């Protein structure tokens, strides 16, 4: 393999970083021992900028190119699971069947409500509606929010050719 650019990131299918590379796991490195790498990364991924800086943390993350939809270098976002709020649900209605038969007559089969001739008449033979028709549904539990994936290791070059801008 040719000598990498310093801070180049590669995917590997094995469980260790090769010599001169480190996992992209957000670890902090001392600036005084990695000055060239710090000059490229700075504190974009963390660290105090005085004695330490951090490598990118790609554990459980999908990399994306900066720019476009307002993405900037080092930005993190997304979530592995999500609980929907009412504002996120599409507009919809929960209909109820009704009958055109007057309220003092037997209601047609499979209909729930009929119009009332005497709305405030004395109640008789009251019955509870089907609980599933009038009760809450859902459990406010988060759902998985992940695309299909294959887990590999991202590694960053700790040594190599310093990239030039031109």
TrEMBL record:
This is Phage tail protein. Residues 8-63 form the Phage tail collar domain. The lineage of its organism: Bacteria, Pseudomonadati, Pseudomonadota, Alphaproteobacteria, Hyphomicrobiales. It comes from Rhizobium loti (Mesorhizobium loti). It comes from the Bacteria. It holds the Pfam family Collar.
């Amino acid at each position: 393999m040719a000598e990498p650019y310093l801070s180049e990131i590669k995917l590997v299918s094995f469980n260790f970083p090769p010599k001169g590379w480190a996992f992209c796991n957000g670890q902090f490195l001392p600036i005084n021992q990695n000055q060239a790498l710090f000059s490229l990364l700075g504190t974009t991924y963390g660290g105090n900028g005085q004695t330490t800086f951090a490598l990118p943390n790609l554990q459980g993350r999908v990399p994306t190119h900066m720019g476009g939809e307002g993405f900037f270098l080092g930005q993190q976002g997304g979530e592995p699971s999500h609980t929907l709020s009412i504002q996120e649900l599409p507009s919809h209605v929960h209909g109820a069947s009704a009958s055109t038969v007057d309220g003092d007559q037997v209601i047609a089969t499979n209909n729930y409500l009929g119009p009332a001739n005497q709305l405030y008449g004395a109640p008789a033979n009251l019955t509870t509606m089907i609980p599933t028709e009038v009760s809450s549904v859902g459990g406010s539990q988060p759902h998985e929010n992940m695309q299909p994936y294959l887990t590999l290791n991202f590694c960053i070059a700790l040594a190599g050719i310093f990239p030039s801008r031109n």
